[in-house]
From TrEMBL:
<dbReference type="InterPro" id="IPR013149">
    <property type="entry name" value="ADH-like_C"/>
</dbReference>
<protein>
    <submittedName>
        <fullName>PIG3 family NAD(P)H quinone oxidoreductase</fullName>
    </submittedName>
</protein>
<dbReference type="InterPro" id="IPR011032">
    <property type="entry name" value="GroES-like_sf"/>
</dbReference>
<dbReference type="Pfam" id="PF00107">
    <property type="entry name" value="ADH_zinc_N"/>
</dbReference>
<dbReference type="InterPro" id="IPR014189">
    <property type="entry name" value="Quinone_OxRdtase_PIG3"/>
</dbReference>
<keyword id="KW-0560">Oxidoreductase</keyword>
<dbReference type="Pfam" id="PF08240">
    <property type="entry name" value="ADH_N"/>
</dbReference>
<keyword id="KW-0521">NADP</keyword>
<dbReference type="InterPro" id="IPR002364">
    <property type="entry name" value="Quin_OxRdtase/zeta-crystal_CS"/>
</dbReference>
<dbReference type="InterPro" id="IPR020843">
    <property type="entry name" value="ER"/>
</dbReference>
<dbReference type="InterPro" id="IPR036291">
    <property type="entry name" value="NAD(P)-bd_dom_sf"/>
</dbReference>
<feature type="domain" description="Enoyl reductase (ER)">
    <location>
        <begin position="10"/>
        <end position="320"/>
    </location>
</feature>
<dbReference type="InterPro" id="IPR013154">
    <property type="entry name" value="ADH-like_N"/>
</dbReference>
Amino acid sequence: MKAIVAREAGGPEVLGLTEVDDLSAGPGELLVDVTAAGVNRADLLQRQGHYPPPPAASPLIGLEVSGHVAALGEGVEGWAVGDPCVALLAGGGYAEQVVVPSGQVVAPPPGLSLVEAAGVVEVAATVVSNLDLAHLGAGEVFLVHGGAGGIGSFAIQYARALGATVLATAGSEDKLAYCRSVGAHHAFSYRDDWAAQVRSAAADGVDVVLDSMGAKYLEAHQQLMATEGRLVVIGMQGGSRGTLDLGALLARRGLVTATSLRPRPPAEKAAICRRVVERVWPLLADGTITPTPQTTFPLAEAASAHAHLESGDNLGKVVLVVRG
């Protein structure tokens, strides 16, 4: 089969379409013919050599796909060859086929094409699992950065559906307008003093922050936290080492936690996938959440897809189309 392989750690140019060994489904697994694969910022980190796959995971890049079931491993029930599906992966998505534990494969969200669906499951799993962890509730204030990206735009809509007041940041007027169009009550440019604007909009502080920036915003987030506020770090685009004032954190009875989806064991991922189907698919079906805009590239142009995502010009989700 054909797959995208990184020849070495480096820029987008290290990615190329290559012939690799065919796959087969083992016990408890499904073999999936891939229709499309979502492109995530974690993929860029893996290409750069900063985010190696977990033990026993495919060394190929790619954390989510859509497609059709090609074969069932021993003991798998509830699926038939040819069934459409989406899958949450630990790796391997940039390929014509993937092998996935059956619990991480679910029916596509209703009303979406398989290409549209390819960019939903990893984003939904990330947001739902972390907002469940933070216990975001109605009437609380929620802040997310990168509100016009895949995770940010989904988080805006999901938090709004939970009844939260939603604040977001983005980098251009077009992206700020998009954040507002999908449900952000307030959207601020991160090129300005966004922290002061958040403080003005949320006088009593922010209850939950979904933070992809890490160290760069750590002090600002701590200062913005409400009493019993929760900071959930899911990325380190702004570095991995920062300063935390424990006295201020104690005074606010604040919680700081960091989570990662990719290395979790299959049983945990299966539970998260079930939660996504339970919570998110109905919201997509009734229009409460709308899929983000997509920019698509053929699988062979994965390097261009990575360059586009890295440019900062992208709105919504980038998807590689494997089969038209």
